[in-house]
């Protein structure tokens, strides 16, 4: 509704001080022309919205103006009482603070909503942990948080993916939780980089501070970073036919393989499926694990590789049996 959108514009301008037409249109998911019409409506209603021209321009409210729009809708209140990830709150050391804030919010809302607050918590729960999760040790996580809040530089001792340790002086910009895994986003040598928190073996908090980039937006950076990462992931596609015995298991496949396409079963009851792996090695290990229940259609080179691996396993245990027979 337009009235809701006009209120949202006022709240956004009060919070962010100045926003361009494009930014408002993106936040509210409308066209820029709609934003211009909304601004005309606000001006006509006596709201002091001002347009500043130029590169650093945008819409703003006059400094003296503030609105006391404190009324909240049922769904807005409900959204505040959806349970967060307690694991991430624990990592951040904010579990107790979250609980106390929840109690304060509960005390401030209308009594008609207070009755249903506990019921909301019992209906939606967010769990970011994996089914079989290995707990990652984050030795310096508190130091990372302190550096971020205080804009302090850090000296990191970081373990790269290849096992090599490197020293890095960084300007920490933020922390991001991907599932239950934390990443430090930091500026290093004029380039923004991602550091897995569990690989930071030590972090020295430096006395020197830094100035955050004015145009840095953590959420936007992370979204573009992950999209770039996904785009550059290696792909190794395999066409297979799957036995009816394991077709349901394949549909609930693990993290190392992606199902690109499942076709209807053919005459012998087997199902053609196109799988995608990161590497040939992952494809070999995955397919060999199903024995004679998966038939490789293409690539042909993978057939020979699987055959050689299976032969090597047979030869290994054949030698083991021979040794045991000689000793018995």
From TrEMBL:
Domain of life per record: Bacteria
A molecular function (GO) term: DNA binding
Presence of the UniProt keyword Magnesium in the record: no
Keyword Endoplasmic reticulum: no
Family matches, as Gene3D superfamilies: Winged helix-like DNA-binding domain superfamily/Winged helix DNA-binding domain (1.10.10.10)
Annotated HTH deoR-type domain residues: 2-57
Pfam family for this entry, one: HTH_11
Keywords from the named record: DNA-binding, Transcription, Transcription regulation
PANTHER family xref list: PROTEIN PAFC (PTHR34580:SF1), PTHR34580
The protein's name in its UniProt record: DNA-binding protein
Organism of this sequence: Neobacillus massiliamazoniensis
